C-alpha cells in the first residue's frame, strides 16, 4: 500500500513539474510574441510617418548607432501619437531631427592626466 501511495505522489509531483515547465515556456513564447507585435507596430507607425529616403537613413543610423536611432524612433512615434506631424517626413526633415537629438545628447569629453613623479624632492635626500 505504501508503494501505491508513493507512486501517486510521484505522478502528482511529475504532473506539477510538467505543468510548471509548460507554463514557463508559454510565458516565454507570449513574451516573444509581445515583442514581435511591438516591433511590428513601431515599423508600421514609422512607415506611415517617414518617406522612403528618410526610412533608409534611419535604418543606416540604426546599424551604426542603435541607441540614437532608437531615441529618434521614439521621438517620431511620440510626435505621431500626439498628432504633431502633418505630412510624411522627408530625409531633410529627418536630418534636422537628428541634429536636434544630437545636440540634446551631446556629451562633453574631458581628459585628465595624473602623472607620477619620477624624481620626488624627498628622494634626493636618500642619495
UniProtKB/TrEMBL annotation:
Keywords: Acetylation, Apoptosis, Phosphoprotein. SUPFAM superfamilies: Double-stranded DNA-binding domain (SSF46950). Residues 18-39 are annotated as: Disordered. One of its GO terms (biological process) is apoptotic process. Transmembrane segments: none annotated. The keyword Isomerase does not apply. Gene3D superfamilies: PDCD5-like. GO terms for cellular component: cytosol; nucleus. GO terms for molecular function: DNA binding. It comes from the Eukaryota. It holds the Pfam family dsDNA_bind. May function in the process of apoptosis. Belongs to the PDCD5 family. This is Programmed cell death protein 5. The lineage of its organism: Eukaryota, Metazoa, Chordata, Craniata, Vertebrata.
Amino acid at each position: 500500500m505504501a508503494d501505491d501511495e508513493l507512486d501517486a505522489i510521484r505522478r502528482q509531483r511529475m504532473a506539477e513539474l510538467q505543468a510548471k515547465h509548460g507554463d514557463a515556456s508559454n510565458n516565454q513564447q507570449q513574451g516573444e510574441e509581445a515583442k514581435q507585435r511591438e516591433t511590428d507596430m513601431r515599423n508600421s507607425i514609422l512607415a506611415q510617418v517617414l518617406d522612403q529616403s528618410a526610412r533608409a537613413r534611419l535604418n543606416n543610423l540604426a546599424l551604426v548607432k542603435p541607441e540614437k536611432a532608437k531615441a529618434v524612433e521614439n521621438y517620431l512615434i511620440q510626435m505621431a501619437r500626439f498628432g504633431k506631424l502633418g505630412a510624411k517626413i522627408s530625409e531633410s526633415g529627418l536630418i534636422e531631427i537628428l541634429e536636434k537629438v544630437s545636440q540634446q545628447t551631446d556629451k562633453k569629453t574631458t581628459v585628465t592626466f595624473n602623472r607620477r613623479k619620477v624624481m620626488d624632492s624627498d628622494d634626493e635626500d636618500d642619495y
